[in-house]
Amino acid sequence: VFAALLTNNIQLSTREWKILSEGTFGGHDNAPDVKWFMCITDVPDLIQRSKAALILHEPPSLHLLSLELEVRALLDHIRPVITRLRDRFDNFDAKSFPEKLSDQLRAHYMRSLAMGLGVGIVLNCVLSGLEGTPTVVCDESVLWSDEIVRIAELAVVYRPLGSMAMLIALRMAWSGVWLRESKARIEELLKEYGLSVGLTEDSDCSDLGPMQRRWTLQQL
After folding, report:
1. Interacting residues of 57 by C-beta distance below 8 A, sequence separation 6+
2. Predicted TM-score of the model (pTM)
3. I need a labelling partner for 59 at 20 to 30 A (CA). Which of 42, 68, 133, 184 fits?
């Protein structure tokens, strides 16, 4: 799923993505972790269909409007999931668990919240592309991006636990801000987390621009 989100290397049909999503969780689990993941499985196919539609249709068109409504429905779905993930993290009582388990749970809740926020940012990117404003970053995405950064700064102490998820969430956060200073801070955190998974200090962030253009449906 994440490889398909970040690159064009994986191409599945709408039906195949649905089978993958329902086959993984059965489509019945109400846990917020499952909800954000099931939402993100819709995104690669949505990007693929939206880019194809933009080639064939000039805005405004009923076909593009239909895709916009689909994205807005997913945003309406992910917002309460983010609230649940945030409440779970904010209300976590570490004293109720042994120290090791408490650390593991706290790290899990942090990365799940960061990923949920990231899904929302990517959906807003797709929506901006469909609306013909791919370079515009909405206020909601900026707030979500700032929240991911705060989580990443707190979660550093748990590295390498959750580092891969934070690397993905931070990439999403990068696409949710427009200030160069904000993007630079995210790049610093990406390098810091990258060290936890074997990347070198001089690893660059050259993939971030093409990734953002992919999510906003621009030609690479």
Report:
1. 63, 64
2. 0.91
3. 42
DSSP 138: -
CA 88 to chain centre: 19
What is the longest distance spanned by two Cα atoms in the chain? 58
Instruction: Give yes or no for a cis peptide into 160 (omega within 30° of 0).
Output: yes
How far is the first Cα of the chain from the last one, in angstroms, to the nearest whole number?
Answer: 20
Contact of 10 with 47, CB cutoff 8 Å: no
**H/E element holding 203?**
none
> What letter represents residue 73's amino acid?
A
20 to each of 1, 16, 78, 190, how far by Cα in Å? 9, 6, 19, 29
132 SS3 class: coil
Let me know how long the chain is: 220
Rounded CA-CA distance 68/84 in Å is: 25
Q: In this structure, which amino acid lies at residue 29?
A: D
Using DSSP, state whether 72 is helix, strand or coil. helix
Which amino acid, 53?
Answer: A
Preceding amide of 59 cis, omega within 30: no
Closest CA to 1 of 42, 36, 30, 29: 42
What is the tens place of the pLDDT at every residue in 142-198? Answer: 999 999 999 999 999 988 888 889 999 999 999 999 999 999 999 999 998 988 877
* DSSP assignment of 22-62: HHHHTTT---HHHHHHHHHTTHHHHHHHHHHHHHH-PSS-H
Instruction: Give CA–CA dist 10/3, Å, rounded.
Output: 7
